[in-house]
Design goal:
381 residues; alpha/beta; Aspartate Aminotransferase, domain 2; Aspartate Aminotransferase, domain 1; 2 domains; 7-stranded mixed beta sheet; binds pyridoxal-5'-phosphate
Length: 381
């Protein structure tokens, strides 16, 4: 192992403000679904440009609530990508609905293919679940047209996408419902945490009810004397966020634009350095028209380069890399349940993709080190 410190795949950007936010909650002695959560929801909704934001325990639970709100049930089909984190798919299965995999658009655009979505529509299709890979938008104009002409709902898995724009909007404000993640390695980190966003009043009120056992009032309402009893009107869940996570989220939200700018600078720097290695390494989403947030920095290795050895070599030089993603349809559980799929582009990208370290505070000298070691590796094969 190298003497130099490890360059991690991702690093938190916490400062004194996050600590103060946590202490503020402890001092105020109200731990769940209180003023911090309400403020976080309001601030997040206003940031995204959407009517309702509903804080949840994590993004997986937000996706589940979204699927409930649009009325998914057994027998329904949802068209979704396979090049995503398994949570996207799991949330569909929780409702009894069937995921139907669509391929990615191209070897350059790794988001769900509108053409393949159209191919996969049947009389049972109820929704399209899109995922903005790495903070790069799916082709939302085409997907909206498809959804309108077939009367389908659109759910955006926006876990990668806080602060990414699409035309004059932010991602997460385009579909019927969108879900964000505040897991440690996301652009906003609270540990665990998520947010469901929608402009639809009915979806919002159902999601709010289902988030907390279908109860018509919360503990804060009762504390404040706004209510003394509650009714239970639905069979809901406990998918609530707590005040500590919400307080951290509010600080993180305020830093988001600055941190995304830093990521964009780092991505540009990577691109300038890696462009010289274009024989062996390509960078996806070339000629992308909008403003991504560089949630991750993915590259594609030339066919024939052994990815495992590449990743192991970098690890031995103190550089952590990752794969986004092992496609969901190839995992044992999904493969046994849904069988072999025709997703040639997804499988090819999934075989050759490597994710390099990126985070707001990564230094140019760290990126230099990553690229130097990649060069040495490539020279040696
Ligand atoms: C992280 C992630 C999720 C799940 O988020 P949690 O907050 O951990 O539940 C869902 N979808 C995608 C694409 C993700 O990257």
């Amino acid at each position: 192992m190298t003497e130099k410190p490890m360059i991690p795949l991702f690093d938190l950007n916490f400062g004194v403000e996050e600590k103060e936010a946590v202490l503020r909650v402890l001092h105020n002695k109200w731990l769940t679904m209180g003023a911090e959560t309400e403020a976080f929801e309001k601030e997040f909704a206003s940031y995204v440009g959407i009517k309702h934001a509903i804080a949840t325990a994590n993004c997986t639970t937000a996706l589940h609530l979204a699927n409930i709100a649009i009325g998914l049930e057994k027998g329904d089909e949802v068209i979704c990508p396979s090049l995503t984190f398994v949570a996207t798919l799991n949330s569909i299965l929780y409702t009894g609905a069937t995921p139907v995999f669509a391929d990615i658009s191209s070897i350059n655009d790794w988001t769900i293919s509108p053409e393949d979505i159209t191919e996969k529509i049947t009389s049972r299709t109820k929704a399209i679940m899109v995922m903005h890979y790495g903070g790069f938008s799916c082709d939302m104009d085409s997907i909206r047209k498809i959804a309108e002409s077939h009367n389908l709902k659109i759910i955006e898995d926006a876990a990668h996408a806080p602060g990414s724009s699409y035309r004059d909007k932010l991602l997460g404000s385009i579909g019927d419902i969108s879900c964000f993640s505040f897991f440690s390695n996301k652009n906003i980190s609270t540990g665990e945490g998520g947010m469901l966003c929608t402009n639809n009043d009915a979806y919002a009120s159902e999601a709010r009810l289902m988030r907390s056992h279908g109860m018509t009032s919360g503990t804060l309402d009762r504390y404040k004397g706004h209510a003394f009893t509650y009714d239970v009107v639905l069979n809901g869940y406990n998918y609530r966020m707590d005040e500590i996570h919400a307080a951290i989220g509010r600080v993180q939200l305020r830093k988001l634009d600055t941190c995304n700018d830093l990521r964009r600078c780092s991505a540009k720097y990577y691109e300038s350095k890696l462009s010289k290695l274009h024989q062996d390494i390509t960078i996806p989403f070339q000629d992308y028209k909008y403003k991504p947030n560089y949630h991750i920095f993915p590259i594609l290795l030339k066919e024939g380069i052994n990815r495992k050895i590449f990743m192991k070599y970098l690890f031995e030089q103190g550089i952590q890399t990752s794969i986004h993603y092992q496609p969901v349809h190839l995992f044992s559980y999904y493969h046994q349940k849904y069988g072999t799929q025709q997703l040639p582009l997804t499988e090819e990208v999934a075989r050759r993709e490597v994710t390099l370290p990126i985070y707001p505070n990564i230094m140019e000298r760290d990126i230099d080190r990553v690229v130097e070691h990649i060069k040495t590796f490539l020279a040696g094969i």
